[in-house]
Design a protein that fits this description.
With about 400 residues, this protein is α/β, with parallel strands linked by helices. The protein has three domains: about 100 residues, no CATH class; about 180 residues, Rossmann fold (3-Layer(aba) Sandwich); about 80 residues, Winged helix-like DNA-binding domain superfamily/Winged helix DNA-binding domain (Arc Repressor Mutant, subunit A, Orthogonal Bundle). The protein contains 20 helices and twelve strands. The chain is globular, with a radius of gyration of 22 Å.
Length: about 400
Amino acid sequence: MIGVGAAGPLGGERDASRRRGLSLVEPDRSARAADERAAWICLASIAGVGPVGFAAVGHRFGTAEAALESSAAEVVGLLPRADAQTGEDLRRVQHRGWRTVASRLEDEAHRAGGTVLTALDAGYPVPLSLLGGRPPVLYLLGPPEALAPPAVAVVGTRRPTGYGLTIAADISDEIARAGVTVVSGLALGIDGRAHLAALDAGGRTVAVLPSPIDRVYPPRHRALAARIVAEEGALVSEAPPGRLSGKPDFARRNRIISGLAEATVVIEAPDRSGALLTASAAQAQGRDVYAVPGPIDSVASRGCNRLIADHVAELVTSPASLLHRLGLGLSNVPADHVVATLSEAEGLVLGALIKRSGSIEELGTRSQLATPALASALTLLEARGLVASYGGVTFHATLAARRIGNSGSSR
């Protein structure tokens, strides 16, 4: 079944399997499973399909193979982004043979030094596999392990101030030294500084490209991209090798940047910055969003200031405060030890917040704790770096708390 995301025919089953560490495709794939994987690669490579169209085709035909064996007009009719070129490309693929096309795409990825990951593969990033609208196919230059959590996205404008560059370097340095992967988009400005600072700190970083892995964009960052791969990081793209990039590709990659990370930090962003699209994607995905404030008369900080004012992002006042909010100071403390030191009230409140953020009134209803006991538990959990709040009104579990929760649920 195709089923990209929770809305797909097998979305719930596949997601549950991934949380158990299983793959729906056995290592010694049958010919049929290998054919379906090839069909995914081929179908996803057709411009105009996209994740939404891919899922729609899955609902209609059940498998990518069945879709590619069907009428091109019927398939195109299901694609919201399709145009006349989409139909021509699909008919061309059917004429050449979709197995041949998929094999060629894998060969091209290998020649570029990369690999192909489908959402059917065990190596597909777990953080992305849990999302609706996840990319069905990724092209990867670097080890798949580089995409494993924990990770934090650091993004911002291509035209930063000196202040923004300094903060991007400080925050990325601290995140990398905490053993957390820094994810960004390899763009000029804040993105590039975030990647570089992570590398200089001896950490790992992942760049999500708007271009194919064999055509690194921007060209000025090709040396940086090579260093990322050489130092055990990775380049990731939805675009098949050889494809030319367009404006929509820059926007679409933002959801992958935020999707690979457990939290997104926006350093500087003017009103129409692409970094704001990444923040919006993170919010839609249920991931934490943080923003660095700037002077009220700074164009480069308008977007960040608005994210904070609108309670979309939590205020970052220093690298140390961000690490505390993320709970990264607990990264070397065993989960069992942290859980064992929680009081009963703290455990009830933290469990409720891991499931869903909420106000103190909502938490009182969900935990059945009296207000004094609830307030005390929240204060202690905040001191431990397990809970943070938006202006003291809405509380949520930090990245560290969710890791502890995931660790406990996996045992």
